[in-house]
Design a protein that fits this description.
Elements lengths: L20 H4 L3 E6 L2 E8 L6 E2 L6 E2 L5 E6 L6 H6 L2 E3 L1 H5 L6
Antiparallel strand pairs: 1-2, 2-5, 3-4, 5-6
């Protein structure tokens, strides 16, 4: 005869947390602008020094930044990915205001 106690293995009914789409995609998103369509990926902390094409300053190791590449590259998607650039996040947001 079974005991009257509830099993400790029984799942509790709790609502599922909201899905963070950006995190599920590895921080990758698509952005459109006057300069074309871009894939942009957030990098929490790089391990190398990169040169930002926006301000032409170094992005030091450990600095959060973004990597962007053109989706509509002249020689195709692979060429766009090979031509990717590391940007300071603020420089990427301000690229439309630059000359």
């Amino acid at each position: 005869m079974p005991s009257g106690r509830r099993s400790s293995r029984r799942r509790r009914v709790e609502p599922h947390p909201e899905l963070d789409v950006e995190r599920a995609l590895g921080g990758r998103r698509t952005e459109s602008g006057p300069d074309g369509e871009w894939t942009v990926q957030t990098v929490p902390a790089g391990t190398k020094t990169y040169r930002c094409p926006g301000c032409r300053q170094d992005i030091l190791p450990g600095t959060p930044h973004v990597v962007a590449w053109a989706n509509d590259a002249l020689l195709g998607a692979v060429a766009g990915l090979e031509d990717r650039r590391h940007w300071h996040t603020a420089c990427w947001r301000a690229r439309g205001r630059r000359r």
